[in-house]
Amino acid sequence: MKQIVILMVLTGLTLNSQGQDWLNRELYPFESQYMQLKAGKMHYIDEGEGETILFVHGTPTWSFLYRDMVKELSKTHRCIAIDHLGFGLSEKITAFSGTPQAHAQNLEEFIQKMGLDQITLVVHDFGGSIGLGAALTMPEKFKRVVLFNSWLWSTKEDPAAQGIDQLLNSPSGEDYYLKQNYSPVVLLKQAFSNAKNLTEEVHQHYIAPFPNPDSRQALLNLGRQFVGASDWYEAQWQQLDKLSELPWLILWGNKDPFLNQDYLEKWKSRIPNAQVHTFDVGHFVQAEASDASLQQIKSFLR
User: Fold this and answer.
1) CA dist., res. 262 & res. 97, Å (int)
2) Bridge partners, 147 (sequence order)
3) Rounded CA gap, 159 and 152, in Å?
4) What residues does 121 pair with on adjacent strands?
5) What is the pLDDT of residues 257-284, one digit of tens each?
6) Is the pTM of this model over 0.90?
7) Domain residues of the chain, as ranges?
8) How many whole angstroms from its chain centre is CA 192?
9) Residue 147 in contact with residue 120, Cβ under 8 Å?
10) Residues near 142 by beta carbon (within 8 Å), at least 6 away in sequence
11) Among 3.40.50.1820, 3.60.15.10, 3.30.70.270, 3.20.20.370, what is the CATH number of 33-301?
12) Sign of the CA dihedral 226, 231, 232, 237?
């Protein structure tokens, strides 16, 4: 056992009480913290001091996605990044519904218990609907919004979304997600415009949190809500005036294979005063245009 521990130290790996021997603390050098919510135990990191920046991820990612931004922005701000229940280092609960509405309620509870205020909200993918859904219940607590590729409106009329929905609600789609871990293994890689920007080591940090079918239920539950939660998305969209007067920064990957330019144009029409910057990368701007997007956020915060 002693030799194993020495080897893990040399390679930057850690083994904690949850058996996360895959986690490289050189890549993710943050103290893990946990909050007991009504629905389960949520993992988060809380780094730095100053005004709060709250990072909200989508699927199949976790707070690891924002690691480089947290490292840099925590020098001047308090950076909090959560893992939704069922994702990352948070508790895996097969009985949890895993809808965006339920995740938004968890985030609302987290914000209340943490006593957060004057929040700069950073969202991406499903984290857009989740983070904004929570913010709409307490708009007075939010100061700015930074939005990466995401949506907040009904998708049930979108033919591409319908195709994804049909697959995920079929036996073969369930098999892909639960038995083959298809979302982090295949879809995440496809979302990069250049696969070389996703190293094998980093890729493993998105695959490893889902080691068995039970742990992958959160991926399937949320994926099925791309269309399934359309009515809820639309209801949030209709309330967005509560937040639309805040300063917004939209950072968009133009080569996103899932959320095309029509999505960006809809955001620009709804938030006409937003600062908008586009990058010739895929869905994960944080990974493929890390330095450039970080500089835009720094400028926006100033």
Assistant:
1) 30
2) 123, 250
3) 17
4) 54, 145
5) 999 999 999 999 999 999 999 999 999 9
6) yes
7) 1-30, 33-301
8) 15
9) no
10) 118, 119, 120, 121, 135, 243, 246
11) 3.40.50.1820
12) positive
